[in-house]
């Protein structure tokens, strides 16, 4: 009897232990994040604001990996992709270097007469046009022969050097505004002759880059004067051309906001430096917005809120001018931080760039740009991702680029996802941890930002879902339940694409190879394949019940899913 009672006690205790562990597991199991999409509630056109890219070094354009990447970018979009690059007027031999580029379009003979040479700038623009891309034709920087302070002119900056070393003779106002205007006039006329009027009418022309900081060594008024001369030259050469500016950075800074408003005041009511009339031509408004990552306790912490506050302030300033409010806006650089050529090895806060932190940040930030534009009632046309490639650099060095040595990084696959989304934006119920207002104020420091962006056209819908946090930690996956309402079909096909540690991620594959700096041809082929956008599962047919479907899946931290629903 005693033995039986002891055995019963042991067994009951074991059962209680098993039951307790089961209950504990049930308690720690995450509740699915419920995301509800209503296809019947449209939120406006899904403008391809993501289909805009740019970079500092224009001579990378026609190099081997540059041409390869531009081809891939052009192929991921249903619409023409716009490309913005610096240094179209810079004097030099056309040899690429970090934070440097040159085309040698303008020199002068011994008598001071202009000599125009379009060979290199044509090589750059030909590369775009051959791929169906469109230039944002940047007027700048100052040719050596026209600079009011030409020496020193060529810089030799490299990562680790003082960033201020790059601002040399090319950053100064002209010694002759008339000669500079004639250069602009001749460039536009040449472009029309080479590419045709209809093509050039589809471009955007702009003056300079970030004239509110050291990219411009003149005064605000000198920039405005140069804008008047440049805009007049563009319009004289092609009256239907589109010209814009001022490409200020950080509109949430007081000094930048002042520059921005001074420029817009002049455009609206100032005395034109060329014509003497009131106002200046302005067809598009441009400014820049950047985040501010840091290393906190050994971990990279992003700051999307800083970038969104810049965008919010820029939209607020534009919206305050009734005559300008409906003009298209291009965020000429829209990125997690400022220096694309500052590598991870010297700037540890940039360690987000190679892996899924960059891709999830991109997925989470672009829909909020749409929402901010809606909130201010402004016309957001595009947001330029200032990232391209850096030719012949170490593999995965941690530059802010889309590919390394011809191998695509995870972030490029977010743009492939965006390329499969068109039609109209539709409602995503905002009962989740973050909406754009909370994210703008607080960034993502508490709960994870698990949310979605959804579009639909006549025959399909697309839902992008991300699992983002400012802290670059890989924690356990989160269960997600996506419910689509208003599905006007009886049966749909679902395709599920994924970016995470195991999918669409050449960086993780490269690390598993041992991080080779001289990979074999076979390894490169493997990396190229791993860099493409991959599906999580095979396509599935799903029955629609009462115009609803429900899709459940686990989404890893810093992961992004795209659900394509086709009927």
Automatic annotation (TrEMBL):
<keyword id="KW-0378">Hydrolase</keyword>
<dbReference type="InterPro" id="IPR051923">
    <property type="entry name" value="Glycosyl_Hydrolase_39"/>
</dbReference>
<keyword id="KW-0326">Glycosidase</keyword>
<keyword id="KW-0732">Signal</keyword>
<comment type="similarity">
    <text>Belongs to the glycosyl hydrolase 39 family.</text>
</comment>
<dbReference type="InterPro" id="IPR017853">
    <property type="entry name" value="GH"/>
</dbReference>
<dbReference type="Pfam" id="PF01229">
    <property type="entry name" value="Glyco_hydro_39"/>
</dbReference>
<feature type="domain" description="Glycosyl hydrolases family 39 N-terminal catalytic">
    <location>
        <begin position="103"/>
        <end position="531"/>
    </location>
</feature>
<feature type="signal peptide">
    <location>
        <begin position="1"/>
        <end position="25"/>
    </location>
</feature>
<dbReference type="InterPro" id="IPR000514">
    <property type="entry name" value="Glyco_hydro_39"/>
</dbReference>
<protein>
    <submittedName>
        <fullName>Beta-xylosidase</fullName>
    </submittedName>
</protein>
<dbReference type="InterPro" id="IPR049166">
    <property type="entry name" value="GH39_cat"/>
</dbReference>
């Amino acid at each position: 009897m005693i033995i039986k009672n002891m055995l019963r006690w042991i067994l009951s205790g074991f059962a209680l232990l098993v039951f307790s562990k089961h209950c504990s597991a049930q308690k720690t199991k995450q509740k699915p994040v419920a995301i509800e999409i209503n296809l019947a509630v449209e939120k406006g056109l899904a403008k391809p604001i993501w289909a805009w890219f740019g970079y500092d070094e224009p001579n990378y354009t026609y190099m081997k990996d540059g041409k390869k990447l531009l081809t891939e970018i052009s192929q991921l979009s249903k619409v023409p992709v716009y490309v913005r690059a610096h240094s179209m007027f810079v004097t030099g031999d056309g040899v690429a270097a970090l934070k440097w580029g040159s085309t040698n379009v303008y020199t002068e003979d011994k008598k001071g007469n202009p000599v125009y040479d379009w060979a290199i700038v044509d090589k750059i623009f030909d590369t775009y046009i051959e791929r169906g891309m469109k230039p944002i034709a940047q007027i700048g920087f100052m040719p050596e022969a026209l600079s009011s302070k030409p020496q020193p002119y060529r810089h030799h900056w490299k990562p680790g050097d003082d960033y201020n070393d790059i601002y040399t003779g090319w950053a100064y106002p002209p010694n002759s505004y008339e000669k500079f205007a004639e250069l602009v006039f001749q460039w536009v006329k040449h472009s029309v002759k080479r590419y045709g009027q209809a093509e050039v009418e589809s471009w955007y022309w702009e003056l300079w880059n970030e004239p509110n900081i050291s990219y411009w060594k003149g005064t605000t008024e000198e920039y405005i004067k140069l804008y008047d001369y440049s805009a007049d030259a563009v319009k004289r050469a092609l009256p239907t051309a589109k010209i814009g500016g001022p490409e200020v950075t950080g509109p949430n800074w007081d000094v930048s906001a002042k520059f921005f408003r001074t420029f817009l005041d002049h455009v609206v009511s100032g005395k034109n430096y060329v014509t003497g009339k009131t106002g200046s031509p302005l067809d598009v408004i441009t400014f820049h917005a950047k985040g501010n990552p840091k290393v906190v306790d050994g971990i990279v912490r992003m700051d999307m809120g800083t970038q969104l506050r810049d965008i919010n302030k820029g939209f607020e300033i534009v919206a305050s001018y009734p005559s300008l409010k409906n003009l298209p806006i291009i965020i000429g650089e829209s990125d997690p931080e400022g220096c694309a050529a500052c590598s991870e090895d010297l700037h540890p806060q940039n360690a987000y760039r190679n892996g899924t932190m960059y891709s999830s940040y991109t997925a989470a930030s672009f829909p909020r740009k749409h929402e901010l534009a809606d909130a201010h009632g402004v016309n957001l046309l595009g947001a330029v991702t200032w990232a391209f490639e850096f030719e012949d650099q170490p593999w995965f060095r941690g530059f802010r680029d889309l590919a390394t040595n011809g191998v695509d990084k995870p972030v490029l696959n977010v743009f492939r996802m965006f390329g499969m989304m068109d039609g109209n934006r539709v409602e995503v119920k905002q009962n989740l941890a973050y909406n754009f207002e909370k994210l703008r104020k607080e960034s993502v420091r508490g709960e994870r930002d698990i949310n979605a962006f959804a579009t639909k056209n006549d025959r399909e819908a697309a839902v992008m879902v991300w699992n983002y946090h400012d802290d670059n930690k890989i924690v356990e996956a989160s269960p997600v339940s996506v419910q689509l309402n208003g599905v006007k079909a009886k049966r749909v096909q679902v395709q599920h694409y994924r970016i995470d540690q195991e999918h669409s991620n050449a960086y993780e594959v490269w690390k598993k190879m041992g991080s080779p700096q001289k990979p074999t041809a076979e390894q490169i082929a493997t990396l190229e394949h791993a860099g493409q956008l991959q599906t999580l599962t095979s396509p599935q047919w799903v029955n629609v019940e009462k115009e609803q479907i429900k899709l459940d899946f686990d989404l890893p931290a810093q992961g992004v899913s795209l659900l394509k629903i086709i009927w």
